[in-house]
Every structure is written in C-alpha cells, then in structure tokens.
UniProtKB/TrEMBL annotation:
Keywords: Membrane, Transmembrane, Transmembrane helix. The lineage of its organism: Bacteria, Pseudomonadati, Bacteroidota, Chitinophagia, Chitinophagales. The keyword Transmembrane helix applies. The chain crosses the membrane at residues 7-25. It comes from Chitinophaga jiangningensis. InterPro entries: YtxH (IPR024623). This is YtxH-like protein.
Length: 64
C-alpha cells in the first residue's frame, strides 16, 4: 500500500468516525450514556476515597 492509498483510507476512516460521533451527539442515547458514565465515575471515586482512607488509617497506626 503506497502513501496515497494510506491517506485515502485514513481520510475515509476519519470521516466515518466523525459521522458516527456527530450522530451520537445528536441522538437521544447521549443523555443515557452520559448518565451511566457519571454513575460509574462516582462509584470509582468513592472506591478510591475508601482505599485512600484505609491507607491513611494504616499509615497512622504504623507511625503511632
């Protein structure tokens, strides 16, 4: 595959991704997906906070 063929394939793939993203951003599913992502992010944040608190408690116990 020569450079011009690679450029054409890259352009087509980029255009397809752009169309897909544009369609997604204008669809009704966007709000549903954003809500799910926020929920998962909040769960992960809570999990990390608990781990951090456990680590801090263990560190305080070691240093005491």
């Amino acid at each position: 595959m020569n450079n011009s063929s690679k450029a054409v394939v890259s352009f087509i793939v980029g255009a397809a991704v752009g169309v897909a993203v544009g369609y997604f951003l204008n669809s009704d599913k966007k709000d549903e997906l954003v809500g799910k992502l926020r929920y998962q992010a909040d769960k992960l944040k809570d999990k990390w906070k608990k781990k951090k608190d456990q680590f801090e408690d263990a560190l305080e116990n070691e240093l005491a």
